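Technical note accompanying the year-one report. For the benefit of new consortium partners, we illustrate the data format agreed upon in the data management plan: each record pairs a sequence with a structure-token string. No post-processing was applied to the example shown here.
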Amino acid sequence: MSTATETKLDVEISITESAPCTKRIALSVPAKTIDQRLEHALSAFMSTANFPGFRKGKAPRALVEKRVGDALLNETRGQLISEAYSRAIEDHNLRPISEPRPVDGDAMPELVRGKPFKFAVEIEVAPDFSIPEFGNFEVRKPIIEVGAEHIDGEILRQSYRWGTPTRTEGPFEHLDRMLGKAVVVVEGREGVYFETDKALCVVPAKEDEGKGALLGLLIEGLDKSLLGKKTGDTVTVSTKGADGHEREELRGKNITVTYTIGEAERITPRSTKELADMFSVETEELFKEQVRDALEQRRDGEQRTAMREQVAEQLLAAIDFPLPSKLSEEQVARTLEQQRMELLSRGLEAAAVENRLAELRSKSEKSAKDRLKIFFIMSRLAEHFGVQVTEQEVNGRISFMATQQNMRPEQMRQQIEKAGRMSEVLTVIRDAKVSDRILSQAKASDVPAEEWNKLVEARAKD
């Protein structure tokens, strides 16, 4: 029942700012245009309509209006809403970051012959700001030499990564992995908020100071709740939803998770010789040399990442603008998924990525707002620099991620596409290119590893 027309819609547009980064768009389509559109829709339908007892296209007008009049009104109304909104976005160069919503929850008005069609919507738009002078930015490049302790540490990590899992009933030790039933209750909400029979949990390593992730939540003292327990045991842990959590209903709320351990496994690490054999390396010494080469490549990547993070910090200091008055779940979740792709691209294992994301969720509302601000800043600067992401760059990034996760590139691509996360991969590549454009203009200086570590610790305290 198509009523498409090539005529440009006649519409009056009024735009006001109802809140920071929020535009209220009031639209009015004249009665004359309404009548013309409805007449066009009816005539188009009548010309092809088949009604019993009448030849094709010869049914009386009154009969056609009676049978399909309401449907034509609704279809025409939908088209007018879409066209008017698109016209407002195009004519006023708006950059929406949310779907349009009726003002104050009002329902869209009905379409009536002989009367103008007036409606209003609100949208959140990307903020506008002035671009700073990047030649004034100063960044430090940490200089780190890969030593024997780094090689030994990486071999230890790989020995557990490629170790042999065996079932265990407990008592549980550090790094034991378990699968069980989790029931989540949230303060202020009746009944169970979330429940799953397949909640994965890992007993935190000794160096993690007791903190670990469960269902994407960072739990303090998780090790004390799990160490010494056995399969079949039930533990109860609590945390508080961060003010910047992507789910609005969890922000600032006390969250309790009851976890019943169903099954568990313990990893027996491989020896260095076993790792060398697995990777078809002739001797342990050659394997250590390969590990050194890999660590040096990773170090170079981490150096670049550290410099890009400094760029982000200085962009936040140099650029200020109001965010939408209410952080939406979609926006916050999108920045977290971008972080996921960035961490996977840097070679972190899946479990380590989930721990890092849990840490990010636990941070303050300011941290969530800063991540969102950087998202908007990078989007604008990508336009400023004319940054484009090529298919070759996407393939290269996916191949690298696949190598880090011991997967084939096509498997990694399918996994990303199935999760609907390809846009986050594109954003990670785009932001890296934008940061590198800024770094090419900034003043850079080398910093020894010891001094760099002190700077990082000081920033962490701040």
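Partners are asked to follow this layout when depositing records. Residues 1-5 have pLDDT under 50 and may be disordered.
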